[in-house]
Amino acid sequence: MPRASQGTRCVAVDFSMTVVYSRLARTTGTAMLRCEPKGSGLRNAMVTKSALLYISRSEGFKNFLTRFQSFNNVTHRFVAGEDLKDAVEAIHHLNEKGINASFDHLGESITSEGATREEVSEYVRVLDSIHENGLDSNVSVKLTQIGLDIGEELTYENARAIVEAAARYQNFVRIDMEDSSKTDSTIDIFKRLRSQSNNVGIVIQAYLYRSEKDIEDLLKIGSRIRLCKGAYMEPESVAFPKKADVDANYVKLMKVLLASGLYHGIATHDENMIDATRQFARERGIAPDQFEFQMLYGVRRDLQDKLIREGFRMRVYVPYGKFWYPYFMRRLAERPANVWFVVKNMMKG
User: H or E element: which one contains 103?
Assistant: First the structure.
């Protein structure tokens, strides 16, 4: 373990106990440690994004952490549950507050054709449930859920089946974006879908250098775009490494989207990005019902309610399913401040 200089103390960041830190250090060789002035608390300790993303891919860590009921309990703040009925209940409560939603059935990197067909069936079931329960919600799907790691034609056929099922209910499908190795194929498949139906949209990530050109091309075909910062570890060759540069590009792309006259989703929990969006909309005379803010289930619920009170539209992505662990850990990596929430609640347990 690194040594602290005089007048400082070293804090090992854990999930309620230092054994987690020890296990991570043994497994990855990465010390999740920061030396701080005396008096600093655990809340200010550094949790690196790379370490959290490593944990998100570790089945061993999942098995370890899920031994603790307190860890399982706290995940319910960010994941509605494992079953469709759990997500239906969560979305019903959101709708009561004037918040729209998007079902997100968790699962990715599926390599069995049969399993991709099961995902399609699940999304059809979700769309049926939205209609039957009178929910104000659409659906979001990752293409690796429905075959992208197998073949593009299979993926297209599966995605088209979901889009067609949504069209029967006049509903909407958002094609989610994954890591940069999937960007070209995701956009290609989306363009094929968009050429046949207007009830499908896509996600663009502001941390990629290419995103400005992608947005320019997608707007030419009338695409509805969800703009987010991006949550995957990407090399400097394809993505802005500094947060300030990501933020600047996000604001730049937000302005392009809002000025396009199409209905887009501005997905962020960053109040600076939200303030920039509100200011630009006000300056350009863009009404609050001409776009929507989007956030994740359980994250910044106070801000969600505030924006609704101010007259803005809000959509919350509600994840559910058995493959919740990678999603949950990526959310911590995306916003490390949430780690303190996890630690605090595990200590209570």
Answer: strand 100-105
Residues with active-site annotation = 176, 226
Higher pLDDT, 215 or 5: 215
347: three-class secondary structure by DSSP: helix
Residue 319 CB neighbours (<10 A): 24
Residues 95-123 pLDDT 10s: 999 999 999 999 877 999 999 999 999 99
Helix axes 325-334, 337-348, angle to 10 degrees: 120
In angstroms, the Cα distances linking 134 to 96, 129, 130, 138, 190 are 12, 8, 6, 12, 28
Is residue 153 classed as helix, strand or coil in its secondary structure? helix
Q: pLDDT per residue over 267-301, tens digit each?
A: 999 999 999 999 999 999 999 999 999 999 998 99
Percent of residues, the chain, with pLDDT higher than 90: 66
- The CA-atom distances, in angstroms, between 335 and each of 166, 338, 340 are 32, 6, 10
Backbone angles phi, psi at 132, to 5 degrees: -65, -35
Domains of the chain with bracketed CATH = 8-74+333-348 (no CATH), 80-323 (3.20.20.220)
